Amino acid sequence: MGIVAGLDSSAEYTRIVVCDADTGAVVKQGYAEHPAERDDPQSWLMSLGKAASTGQLADVRAIGVSAQQQGLLTLDSTGTPVGPALLGNDKRMQTAAADLGEALGGREAWAQAVGAVPQAAHPVSKLRWLARNEPEAAQRVAEVMQPHDWLVWQLLGRPEQRTTDRGDASGTGYWSAATETYRPDLVELALGHQVRLPDVIGPAATAGHTPEGLLISAGTGETMAAAFGLGVGIGDAVVSLGASGSVFAVHHEALTDPTGTITSFADATGMHLPVVRTLNAVRVLRGTAEMLGTDLDGLSELALKSTPGASGMVLLPYLEGERTPDLPHTAGSLHGLRRESMRPEHLARAGLEGMLCGLADALDVLRNRGVQVRRVFLLGAAADLPAVQAAAPGLFGAQIMVPQPADYTALGAARQAAWALSGGGAPPAWPAAECQVFDAGETGDDAAVGQAVRQQFVTVREQTHPGAFA
After folding, report:
1. What angle do CA 194, 45, 197 make, to 5 degrees?
2. Confidence band, pLDDT 50/70/90 cuts, at residue 443
3. Is residue 418 situated within a structural domain?
4. With 60 as the cut, is the pLDDT of residue 188 above it?
5. What is the sign of the dihedral through the CA atoms of 44, 45, 51 and 56?
6. 52, 179, 370, 466: which is deepest, by most CB within 10 A?
7. CA–CA separation, 194 vs 333, rounded Å?
8. pLDDT band at 367 (very low <50, low <70, confident <90, very high)
9. Is the residue at 414 inside a domain?
10. How many beta carbons lie within 10 A of that of residue 94, not counting itself?
């Protein structure tokens, strides 16, 4: 079929990966950072042009676009931005999100409506913030898009039809992954009036063709594109180790969670990606390392000198409060401290096990709703730490996969482009991500020991925060 391209327009840069449409082999790449004005959509086009400036898109037959999620572009009746883009990581909307949650009747009402409780990141919360803080600008808003929607529209020459995909739409707070429909009443609840919303097209659909005849696929958000690029499927979960953490898994249906702990995303294939987030992940490791006067590599070396269970110490890793479980005003705490355990290696081990057990709690939220988890893909720099790789199989109760470094988001976008180009009913069978594989028993922490450590953590958590997961 020739070659296809995947574009990843993140919050900071544009990355291009060009692949053979049949095999997925990477043949060309490009990269450019966004200019300083990262809330100006034109800066995204500028970095795209720079990333493609040495012929990366020459002879490409189709392009897939992935982009930063939950950003909001508000446009007037002429298609001109009303103001700067409101990006996904904009924390000004926290009060607006809480206000909006109450306006519909609380967490359960939102979970039933769209599979998510409003958070600051959701575009629906940004609309509420705009209506409350910039009412004149809010009155001018005639349509809204997310970054991937807008980029596709620009590549196509700003046609009359505006499109998005089910993956990106599921993160808006006004589209339901369960019913696969918009809730325009929630847009009006947030903004005060109706606006035009992009058409949601299928995973293998074509958004259109450029004036030069280049096919543009549906596109999607970064999380969905990364999952598609990794090649995850039913039975797979992905644990992302950033400062905070997230756990998502591929599932056959949307999950409605009245507590709001699970956010029900759709994926880029027609399946679903229920997500559970924690506020504390690698920040726990960094904090522990700083206290011990070392770095992450040094922390890993120390932890491996300890034994599973950290000589009886348990660190509850809620350093910034916690979202899962819902303990926003708590703090971290260290339990089981005895004279014989007061050694750097045991504290290092307790910090590492505390972080992983907190993420295992999030994974169990999904398991308890019937989500199959046989393999866990670990992403992020901390996934390469030997102590994490040793402890994770037993604590997660699953085979651990650590993918080799690659541009999985851009690869997922390219794979979607190849799918749309082929017109087939199934995605092209590109090779799965190359991974290091870790099983309990092969790493020194067998399954029984891992589960004993996990139970030690759960016991302390329940004693300290009884009913946290009730």
Report:
1. 15
2. low
3. no
4. yes
5. positive
6. 52
7. 47
8. very high
9. no
10. 15
What is the number of domains present in the chain?
Answer: 2
List b or e across 329-343, with b for residues whose CB sees 16 or more CB atoms inside 10 angstroms.
ebebbbbbeeeebeb
Residue-wise pLDDT for 45-55, tens only, equals 999 999 999 99
The closest of 320, 330, 451, 463 to 396, measured between CA atoms, is: 451
- Please indicate, yes or no, whether residues 302 and 179 belong to a single structural domain of this protein: no
End-of-domain residue from the set 218, 245, 260: 218
197 and 260 share a domain?
no
Indicate whether 167 and 273 sit together in one domain.
Answer: no
82, 126: one domain: yes
Encoding tokens for residue 468? 């946290």
Residue 411 lies in a domain: no
289-317 pLDDT per residue, tens: 999 999 999 999 999 999 999 999 999 99
CATH number assigned to the domain comprising residue 311: 3.30.420.40
**Same domain, residue pair 369 and 454:** yes
pTM, entire model: 0.93
Domain that holds residue 292: 231-403+440-470
Which of 218, 239, 269 is where one domain is finished? Answer: 218
pLDDT one-digit tens code per residue, 86-139: 998 888 999 999 999 999 999 999 999 999 999 999 999 999 999 999 999 999
Supply 149's token pair. 């929607």
Does 187 share its domain with 332? no
Distance CA 15, CA 7 (A): 6
Let me know whether 248 and 154 are in one domain.
no
Cβ density class 375-396: b for 16+ within 10 Å, e for less: bbbbbbebbbbebbbbbbbbbb
Token couple for 114: 């769209």
